[in-house]
Amino acid sequence: MPWTARILAVSALLLVGTAEPASAASPIDLTSGFYVNPGSAPAQWVASHSGDSRASKINASIASKPIAKWFGNDANIGSSVASYVGAADSHDKLPVLVAYNLPGRDACGGESGGGAGSLGAYKTWISGFAAGIGTHPAVVIIEPDALGDFDCMSSAQIADRNTMLTYATQMFQQKAPNTYAYLDGGNAGWVAAPTMASRLKAAGVANVRGFAVNVSNYYTTSQSVSYANSVKSGVGGSAQFVVDTSRNANGSNGNWCNPAGRKLGVTAQIGGGAEMLLWVKTPGVSDGQCGIAPTVPAGTFSPDLAVRLIDGT
């Protein structure tokens, strides 16, 4: 059933005084499963390397699975987002998007620097992002690493970042009513849960659905759920959380940048100890010029990395 028809059905039930909860209009209920992006980096690689012996393996294990699409600095962000969520809507599927454009992003890691040029430019960008989604159902992860990087930032930079993140939560609240948005909440090995809870509250988590953990990292689902529940206790309210399981089947060895011996985790699903388990990081996309991919820049798809994640080597 198209999402518009589902909304009308829910509205009719509410009008006749049914006890149906408001959550019936969630983006999960408005769609029939997660969207598989035919234009993802692994899908594009498979399409252009059909003769490569690795192509069928990468297609079956990665390219054919629901993976979040990351959006960065784009002068036409509203139309880019609208096009993507519109494509998902045409299949009655739920898209997962990542907003990744904060000024000075990846302050500690350094491999994925960049972002908007100023606080004002970011506000314009994120407002356009939310408006591009509009009433379409969607899931959005807001700014990976944003609240874990504080040790590498000045107090003024932290204040600006909180201003931008709070504004982002307000934009999704106001302009994307059928979106579940989650502020990034780091991972189980980075920031202590009480500290992360405090940072999330200061960044406006109460305005959105909740927070995400383990984005682009490797901690097991059980470790991530345990950490997230501790954070949730500190956040309070109705906050929910999601877990990035894209590369976490073998857990973390303490390294975050293209470590060897990692493996694909369970594919996107509802529940699993969290509100959702998602592939937020695209498996096979490099974390930076480091680890087992010293010549592959951050954000670049590597078939070798992909196959190693499939095989767990």
UniProtKB/TrEMBL annotation:
Active site (catalytic residues): D145
Keywords, alphabetical: Carbohydrate metabolism, Cellulose degradation, Disulfide bond, Glycosidase, Hydrolase, Polysaccharide degradation, Signal
Top EC class of this enzyme: hydrolase
Signal peptide start-end: 1-24
Matching InterPro entries: Beta_cellobiohydrolase, Beta_cellobiohydrolase_sf, Glyco_hydro_6_CS
GO MF terms, alphabetically ordered: hydrolase activity
Listed EC numbers: 3.2.1.-
Entry's family note: Belongs to the glycosyl hydrolase family 6.
Protein name: Glucanase
Originating organism: Amycolatopsis heterodermiae
